[in-house]
Amino acid sequence: MVRYNLKIAAKSLRRNPVLTAVIIGGIALGICISTTFTTVRHMFTRDPLPGKSQRLLYVRLDNWDKDNPYPASADSGNVHRVPPQITYKDAVELMRSPIPVRQFMSYVGRLAVFPDRRVSRPFIQRIRLTQADFFPMFDVPFQYGHSWDRRADANGEQVIVLDNAMNQRLFGGGNSVGKTLQIKDRNFTVVGVLAPWRPFIRMYDLVGNWAGPPDGIYMPFSVGPRMEIGPGGDTDTPSWGANINFNDYRTALMSEMNFVQLWVELRSPADRAAYQRYVDDYVLQQKKGGRFPRPLNNVVMSLRESMVDFGVIRPKLSAMAAISVLFLVICSLNLSGLVLGKFLARAPEVSVRRALGASRIDVFLQHIFECELVGIAGGAIGMLISVGVVRFIGKLISDTSVISLDAEMIASAILLSLVAGFVAGLYPAWRICSVQPAVQLKV
Amino acid sequence: MEFGPIARAIIRNKVRFGLIVLQIAITLAVVTNAINMILAERAKMLRPSGFDDDNLMWVQSKPFANAFGERAYRITSAVADERELRTIPGVLAVSNTYFIPWQGGGSSGSVKVAGGDGTPHQVQMYSATPGIIDTLGVRLIEGRDLRDTDIDDDPNSKAATVLISHAMEQLLFGNQSAVGRQLIDGGGTVNNIVGVFDPFYNPYGFPIHEYAVFAAGHSSYGGATFLVRTQPGAMKSVAQQIPKKLVAINDGRNVDVQSIDDIKHQYFTESRIIVGGMTAVIVLLLLVTGLGIVGVTSFAVTERTRQIGTRRALGATRPAIVRYFLVENWMITSFGSILGLALAYALNFLLVTSTQAVKLDWRIVAIGIALLWVQTIAATLAPAIRAASVPPVIATRAV
Amino acid sequence: MLQMENIRKVYRTDLVETHALENFSLDVGGGEFVAVTGPSGSGKTTFLNVAGLLDVFDGGSYRLAGKDVSRLSDRDMSRIRNQSIGFIFQSFNLIPDLDVFDNVDVPLRYRGIAGGERKRRIENAVEMVGLSSRMHHLPSQLSGGQQQRVAIARVLAADPELILADEPTGNLDSLMAREIMDLLDEINRRGTTIVMVTHSPECAARASREIHLLDGKVVDIERPPALVGSRVVR
Q: Residue B229: what are its φ and ψ, rounded to 5°?
């Protein structure tokens, strides 16, 4: 029956190629627009680590001024009003918890890199000081070598991991594991090079420009205090109270300066309550020593919750996506008129079929089937065009951002095509199957 | 004209016309809210900072030589850089400051009025060398500008000399002058206000866009940054010369230059996506619905050929037939607009509550309805004129 | 009332030329009730189209109510159709989306009559055809005979000088046909000229005069002597 309907539909579409082209074009346009904007929105809202994001938690503590809460942001988010990062000593202490199966602390510094003089002049580079667990926790892919291990963290070994573009820039892209690079006044050994990796949202560091390019060089955290590396990313390093200066490194390191990020990975989401308790207990204990003057306000959020709280999920993009779907609905309703004309013009043929035994349902389904064919055809074209459009929009966001259609978006586009075909065809198909055969056959 | 019969005929065909009415209603809702969003974004993009953005650039020294680890060295270098920048032809004014307009952020802190009620206020806080007023291109409206003698580079100093923005003056002191008053910041430093400038607008993550403090001092931590204002037209040549000249006086660092226009452009990426996207939606929507009206009306003309012939036989002139279709479609559009009004405000309510959108101004709705009327008439004309050429002789043709 | 002289109407296609009316002359006086008969293809419908200014003719002259209507503009022809001629069609030609009231209203609207006057005329006309109780029914809710009566009411409300009827009973059963012919009789008695094209000999017999067409020409004229002296003058 499907093959038969296919045959009838194909013949019918071929009969009036211009009209068919217009209807396919209309659906293609609607699908293109709606796919484009739903995809752009999707890039910001989708789960970057499906299956895991429930178990990855970001820790924030409220060590702010006792008289005033941390300022509210002008955008959405940060309902809880806590500083976006925590202090060094809190991170170190919290990491003593046995509950997480993996965890790491990190911050960003800026250091002078001295490559081979023939390759380039020295330059200042954003460097991520982090720990071994970072790489498996965020599924960071390696091309050569591997990350350092926990022992290297403990010993403050002078090792680095390069990202793919940095490896390209410094070592021409080959396997640079084992080579050395001078950073500030010390030599570091490359232990790993990342595969090309450009997450759309920098989900492991939501502070600052999370749509920007990833970091070029990764280094064990413990090297930081040894080399007296101060924080210097585009990240917020707020602290209330005295303006702390990293010129006096030791004091600043142990101060209330919030420059460290702490991520933990739990065995299962069920452990979350236990971990929250652990954090709360720690802060309560610190309060006895006079710290944390504000009421208890420790915010431990999953990756996705953090993304919402940091304003990654932009409501305006959701609005645009909704409007674009409305556009598709309007396109489909529009095409309904054209389809109606086309179907009614074929009323005589339909009446013959009915006289030969086709039931109303048969006629209805046959015509809906034809509409769905058109829907799929239009949807395919619309999707193809939207691939180009989203790429263009990605370039607008940043030079390296890439927006593309993932499986979920393709599935949603196909679904939308089917819905569009159905909406366009529903009323006409119902009209055509309601026509009394006798009226048409008389002529 | 025959409004009554046409209206009654439309109401009798609820399903068929209902689809078109629904379509028009949704179109009005989408078009009005899209226009609303576009206007809101454009208002944001057009709001001036008050600075001479077109002629401003940001210069960043990125040192790698070890010598820059010493604070004193960094400051000396910053002073030398500032002097060198001033010598470049085409440069109007320079200030050593870490303030960069249009980044969407910067540096902020909490201040209290000395001797006041102790209410803390979050404000943007930057240090700058004298010249900041001329560099930004704002006006000093009270007191005096910063002087070289105000600069205090001692990191342990608990006193500073500052300028504040006029909006901040009004926030903290109402109608009174801020000159001579003092602010205590989070670290306990006493900031002496010597001057007030206006305007100042730098959109920030917190709602403190117009409140700013500039304290006299050098900025050198991590590498000095400068704001440079050029003469109109000189931007390109100055931008080319700056890295060369600065590296020439000190080779232990790289120098980056970026125009404030570029930064501003980047800042408004989301706005531009919204304006572009919504404009495309409006244009395409009107095009699609317009073509739809042409299609549906053509179909109606074909379907009603006999009726048209009969009307002509009964004495309708050709213009009367054209008017008939125009009136019918205009009525449908009007019904759709009434429903669309409700939908437009409903959609707007959703947008206001979920995306901090602006409320819908009735004038935008009026423009939307006018647009739809024009579109309807334009789209109906061709099929209606075709209808007018149906000959009356059709009436006697055998069925 | 209706004076046609040597009317010629030719239909041309790429392949063939049909002379639908050739040397056709006819003189109908005011108040007459004339039947035009003939087999299919004899030119009856063409005659009606020309007579009703629904179509142009290629030769000869046509005077309607004393005026030459040969080369009129579309606007003038429309006005004459609206005010001086009333049509009754074989398939009724009621507008399906309008109820009885609005259907009868159509020609009045094109004349620009004020609302109150229109209402009065419509109500009178519908009353005269006996369908006042169905004023707000749609054509689909009426029988064939009722629909034709509405069409007649449409003509009555406009009150033209000449009624052109195209096989008015062609789609009706004999009972309804008789009702319609009774109505036409009544209208003619009140002074309206009626020219009726018909297949049916019974209907033709109701007329005061019969004209027979064959291949576009008048073949036969029968004038019942009884009516010669009792010609009603408008």
A: -110, 130
Split at pLDDT 50, 70, 90, the class of A240 is: low
How do strand A299-302 and strand A56-60 relate by DSSP bridges? antiparallel
Q: Are strands C162-166 and C193-197 parallel, antiparallel or unpaired?
A: parallel
Give which of C65, C37, C63, C39 is closest to C50, Cα–Cα. Answer: C63
Torsion-angle region of B102 (φ positive above 0: left; ψ -120 to 50: alpha; else: beta): left
Contact between B392 and C75 using a beta-carbon 8 Å cutoff: no
Report ipTM (2 d.p.): 0.86
DSSP run (H or E) holding B183 = strand B182-185
Q: How far apart are CA A108 and CA A130, in angstroms?
A: 8
Cβ–Cβ gap B5/C105 under 8 Å: yes
Please enumerate in sequence order all residues whose Cβ is within 8 A of that of A254, keeping only pairs 6 or more positions apart, or say none.
A88, A89
What pLDDT digit, counting tens, does each position of A287-314 carry? 999 899 999 999 999 999 999 888 888 8
Give dist(CA A7, CA B267) in Å, integer.
54
Residues of chain A contacting B112 with CB distance shorter than 8 Å: none
CA distance B187 to A256: 12
Q: Of A33, A37, A397, which is closest to B284 when you measure between CB atoms?
A: A33
Q: How far apart are CA A146 and CA C165, in angstroms?
A: 98
> Which residues are paired to A105 by β-bridges?
A262
Mean pLDDT of B239-257: 93
Query: What order do you get walking across the sheet with B225-230 strand by strand?
Result: B91-96, B225-230, B56-63, B253-259
- Mean pLDDT across chain B: 91
Query: Residue A228 to residues A247, A250, B70, B246, C154: CA-CA distances in angstroms?
Result: 9, 8, 13, 28, 101
Report the C-alpha gap between A363 and A374 in whole angstroms: 17
Q: What percent of chain A has pLDDT over 90?
A: 49
Residue of B nearest to C104 (CA): B314
Query: Do chains A and C have 3 or more beta-carbon pairs under 8 angstroms?
Result: no
pLDDT in tens, A7-41: 878 887 777 788 888 889 889 999 999 999 999 99
In angstroms, rounded to a whole number, what is the distance separating the alpha carbons of residues C178 and C156?
Answer: 18
Within chain B, residue ranges assigned H as helices are 3-12, 14-46, 71-87, 132-136, 166-173, 235-249, 260-267, 269-303, 305-313, 318-355, 362-388
Q: Do B314 and C106 touch (CB under 8 A)?
A: yes
Measured distance CA(B126)–CA(A212) in Å, rounded = 25
Interface test with B, best of C48, C77, C101, C110 (most B CBs within 10 A): C110
CB contact under 8 A, A320 and B277: yes
Q: Chain C 169-228, CB below 8 Å of chain B: which residues? A: none
Which positions 354-373 of B are in contact with A (Cβ < 8 Å)? 354-357
Residue B2: C-alpha distances to residues A50, B110, B323, C106 (Å): 63, 71, 10, 9
Average pLDDT, chain C: 85
Is pLDDT above 80 for A76?
A: no
**DSSP string for residues in A203-243:** TT--SS-TTS---SEEEETTHHHHHTPPP-SSS----SSS-
Q: Mean of the pLDDT values across residues B184-205? A: 90
Q: Does B9 touch chain C (CB under 8 A)?
A: yes
pTM of the complete model beyond 0.95: no
Query: Residue written as tokens 């920030």?
Result: B204
Chain B: closest CA distance from residue C230 (Å) = 31
Q: If we measure between CA atoms, which residue out of A151, A140, A34 comes closest to residue A415?
A: A34
Measure in Å the smallest separation between the Cα of B222 and chain A Cα atoms: 8
Per-residue pLDDT for A133 more than 80? Answer: yes
Looking at the complex, does the CB of residue C72 fall below 8 Å from at least one CB of chain B? Answer: no
Q: How far is C-alpha C103 from the geometric centre of its chain's CA atoms?
A: 17
Where exactly are the structural domains of chain B?
3-46+269-397, 53-266
List, as ranges, residues 99-128 from B with C-beta within 8 Å of A: 105, 108-110, 120, 122
